[in-house]
Predict the 3D structure of the following.
Amino acid sequence: MPRHRIGPVVEALLHLARNRGADELSRRLADLIEAADEFLTAGEPPTEAEARVPRQQGSPDRERATRVVDDGAEGDEAGAGGPAGGSVPPNVRGGTAASRSAAEHAAEPSAPSAAGCSAPHSTPPRTGRATWENVATPRARAAAPHRPDGAGAGADPRPALAPGWAVRLLGETLLRLPDCTPYLGVLRVLAGWIVERARERGVPQDFGPWFWTALALPAEERADLLRRLVVADGTGGDDRFLAAAGEFLVADARTAQPLLCGWFADGRRLPALPAATVATAAQALLYTHREGRADTLVDALVADGHERADELLSTLAEEDPGAVCRGVARWAVDPRPARRVAAVAYGLRAAPYAASEGDRELLRVAAATLLSRTADAALHGGALALLVRDPVSRGRYVEQAAARFAAAHDPQLTAAALCVALATHPGPVLDAFRRRLAAPGSQVGDVLRVLAEEAAPAVAAPATAFAAELLRARPDTAGHVAAYAERRLARGGADAEVGALVRAAFRTGPPSVRAALASLVAAPGDAPGAVLRGELLEELLRDETHPDVLEALLVALVVRHDARPGAAPGERDGHAARLRGAVLRVGTVLARAPEGGRRLDRRLAELARTVPGFAAYALAWYDEDPGVWRALVGSGGLRTIEDVAASGARTAPAGTPDAERVPSAWHS
């Protein structure tokens, strides 16, 4: 038949659907997909090698949709019935992408349901590059070469017209259907064929994004088909299925947002954006097109519950806290328990970024509402954390929050949440910490960490006094107290309080406490609080004789020494000289203790094996003054140091006398 007589054929196919049902038409449409696949695959050479797209290994659409059709291959395997809502007939021939069973597609995840269909477009592709009228023209001309005498065509043009007939009949029939829902199986097979064909030859222009947005389909099915097709982007052509998804989202955000959340489980990579997946593309679309739609977006995300939704909500809590605060206010009064749980969780995330009084008031009201519900006792800790954070409601609820913190472990009412009230209500907060830490096994490190990070100058004295009191009551917390003192010195402004704490521990504390605090005074000379550290080191070396403390101090001196290969030679020499003097002093005192010489020799050998550069330093010091170091380093320790330095396992830091004897690492 001539190409211009396709209209009656389309009408015949539509008449077939009206009179004999969707299954009969589905069978014909599946035959057309197979014919288009066979003729187009045979008639078009692949694109250039650099345009090829890697296969999506392990993707659900690759496994369930279509396979690559080898030229000339023909199978004998029959298809199966399609999924609910659409069918693929059982008599479709095998050996092509179209012969994939639609039952395989039924197992794919689909988006949430939504009502409503969009009317089909009545126009051809927007770009004008391909229409139903010109699709077969290039092949028809190429298939009919003129004879040398110019008498006319020398070959039958009908085989060249077959691809155009298949494509036109398939496309026009689908576009003219008043409802494509019964043909979802066919559409999924067609989408799978397009994705598979795009890897080699790009997306057919006649089935570009315009075609899929013009089909009469419910929103949920349109979103699912676009999800399957976005992995074909970047394989040729200017139109993008991802852009079509964005237009779909903008046109009806309330309907489309939950449907795009359904993409979060799709981990297939996008060829156009190799670092992105379908899931991250959905996140980007929802984030980019949230303007004026943020309230419906946060509701859709919290309803979805996927970890990708949680990530996006956390981002919105930082960048658009107003939308999250409004959502928290709605969820706090929602009869569904899961929504009230979400109100606490995301209210706590948005609270640090809620800058306006209106947003803070929303959080206050939501927290007070949750606190008033006896059925939500598990959420009271988070509600109190929100109320204590707000200066307006802090005074009323801080006592209740402190009592709850001291009584039991509540994951939402943390030490950090309570510590925000330390500057204004130090008494109740420190008393709650004191009662909480009185029990063995409590989270001492968390409490002392948040106390050390509190920046208010008025907090330094009571917080350090609390740490000293804790150290006296529980010597087993010495390591945490040392870390607290280190953070306080790094923040500055608390040298006097930290000095008093450490001096008292050196004077009256047991050896385990003094050993734990030794690392504080062993820091390099340019560390924060260097003057105080130097004074404390001198006091410790003047009075300390216990071998456990001296050995801990020796290890801390060596481990915390900063060789810093990028520093200037003079600065490196100064660090090395300070380290040599400190090691010599500590070693001399330790060698005089009972069993001190043996412990010193063993410890120096171990440090040579484990601390980068120390073997080279120690050997250089020994060569400079063997008479002094022979009294500290035994034959076994010296042999280990020489072996490590000679083997190059630890390279000599630049600026030491041994730097030329031991090759640097880059030589190897």
